[in-house]
Sequence to fold (666 residues):
Amino acid sequence: MAKNKIDTIVFDLWGTLFVGMPDELITLFYQHAHFPGISDRQRDQLIRMRFDSALAFIQALMDVSQPGSYVTLVEHEKEELESFFNDYRKMDMRAARWIAGAKELLKSLSGEGYRMIAVSNLWWYQEAHITKKIEPFFDELHFSCSKGATKDAMLEKMTADGTLNASTTLLIGDSYEDDIMLAHKLGLHAQRVLVGGPIRPEKILAGLEGGVSQTGNALHEFSRKTLPSSILFITPPYFKLHGSHNNRLNLSVTTLAEMCAAWEMESKVYNADGHPSETYISRYDMIFNSIDFYNRLEGDAIWEGMAGVIEKRMPEVVLITCGDVVNASKDSGIWGSSLKAARIVRQINPSAYIIGYGSLVGADIGDFNVVIDGEAEEIWHMLLKERPTGRVSGGLATAGTLAKIANFYPEERLLGYFSKKSYDTLYVRRGCEGTCNFCQVAFLNTGRVSFRPFDSVIEDVRMRRDRYGLNNIYFTDANFTGFQKITTRFCHEFHAQLPDIKWRIESRFDSLSDELVATLAESGCTSIKLGLENPLDGYQANTKRVTFEDAKIWVRKLKEIGIQPVLYMLLGGMWMTEDEYKLMFEKTRELDAAGYVVSLYAPYPGTFSGISQEEWNKWGFTGSHLDIRLVDYWKIPRKVLDMFFEMETAAGRRAHDTREFISREI
Fold:
């Protein structure tokens, strides 16, 4: 191989060669110990240190967060924390695995004469495990815990003292901010890979041969012959198995279907969860209907209808969802339903290439050829062209990709029942800058965000108004107000072009400001759903910490300005006493919000506060925040359940004027 001018290759580690949950242990420890999280500065301090025991590390961890807290613990508490830490250290290491294509790339580079270096911010308890895996491929390993410096500081020092020759060194990483910009600052060459892979070795090697530069994630164009002749997207039954239905569009499928249309592929979307009715059962009814969930999963006639669609179309490729990545925090699927759908496809069309996709894909892939961990847009062309098997990882869809995809797809591509009213959902941005420990969005995107172009969003809304008469839009962004300057600009542009449209959003208390909510109201925003979880101080999600008084002030301000505040509440998440629940109820009622959405805490495997897959399977959870099994798991008294859901019903739960959520049989 012609090496050109590159003789040294420096690899980032997490997100570039390995995926896992490197911060999971720290997050879980803080949640378990009920201490506030550490700052970036404190984290950098700890990550540079080595320890001879878990207790020594725990002491340092607690002392930088809340000085003196460790010495106040009695011995049995220290032992309990050490046991907790060690248990989750094992889980943390089990989660670490090679990114698809990473090992193949390193093997391709072996023996080619390159000086191979790995540089990473690595915690001391991860070092031995990771070193064992990557040592055969590298000449040098520079880890923060062994060098006493952060990744940035190590690379800056190596460049300054001549250990690295900037003009002949290539840095390969996944982060634009942390890798590519750092390389540019130091004068290094840089190549960017997809966040979380997969790595295409031939692409990296071609870059070495033909010149090196920062690489983007553009939407690829391919000739018709490289793509399958037909693809069927299936949203399998889920709400129907609870005795309800779901007429809404799956927004992650929407974007993939639009990409197929751009490549002139025949594609159809089948919603097996739809129903001609627009009347939904109450959320309280869903809790008790979940008792029969698995009976419906096995014997419901809906599967026959799905089989008929597959037999008629015989698609070459089938994508089956398990949760909507765009709405990953919503009740949106169970892996058992997706596995059964895949089994039906395999029986009818054995040669089909079957893809599993969504926020709740499980460990056992069954009849699927491949399952996607994360998002799909950036690897969609590769999946359709190369048909890999096993598990692949996808990163957050980039702004460049989202700029080329509309979220509107025509009725002629829809099978099954979709409500025209349900075209009212859209998103402006993907991901969320928050990292709440219970949230799948945080797990999937780790604080990253990508924005759609505003003119594209506005055009999608205009089509919905002109075609379906919709004048009230629901933006499903996990935290619509997260970037206040960008949000303000969107409000002005949106209102200038569509002054007749009203809209609703989801947000967080800590991302509101007086100026911003005034702008929202002036621009047509009529409702904000706010995640509170629990009004008792200290009981909120790990990154929110909104006080009861602050929440009360914001509820009042929003109502005064004409925006209806709806609060998300969670029962469970910790084993509270009945008296604690009663206090939670009184405080919630005192807030006097316009509405409430009460849910049960679902400890999803893979999220920072989730349980193991084995424990999840043991309980037989359905994946819903309205699963009666969660009542047993969190030991929630029946009277507590009743009073919270009576409060939700009394306040009324409506999606503006198009859909009533009432207790009534379909």
